[in-house]
Amino acid sequence: MLNKRSVYQLLLGVLCAGIMSSASATGDAAAGQVKSIPCMGCHGIPGYFSVYPTYHVPRVRGQHPEYIVYALQAYKNGQRQHETMRAQATTLSEQDMADIAVYFSSVSE
User: Fold this and answer.
1) CA dihedral in degrees (67, 70, 75, 77; nearest 10)?
2) Burial class of residue 89, CB neighbours in 10 A (0-12, 13-18, 19+)
3) Are 57 and 48 in contact (CB under 8 A)?
4) What total number of domains does the chain contain?
5) pTM to 2 decimals?
6) Structural domain boundaries, residue 63
7) Residue 86 clears pLDDT 50, i.e. is over it
8) Residue 3 DSSP code
9) What SS3 class is residue 61?
10) How far is CA 26 from the centre of its chain?
């Protein structure tokens, strides 16, 4: 018999699998390199700290493409809160997100 915690864990696993499968659109790294130019203003900063206001910027290079797409979707639909990221993400199509994700996942430091 499954207890309440096991049911929640099972549902969370099914939900995550669904999100990841919907986030794994095929992307074009060459197109993503061009589309990611606005991203580099923050995510390309050496040391990943902005000058003003000073804050840590997440490293996206080398991340899994599914995670990048999921994060961009979450900014676009308001699940994640960051004004600049939301403004950027709302302009992106699903294909744009996939292209950017494939590009960033293919590059390292």
Assistant:
1) -170
2) buried
3) yes
4) 1
5) 0.73
6) 4-106
7) yes
8) -
9) coil
10) 14
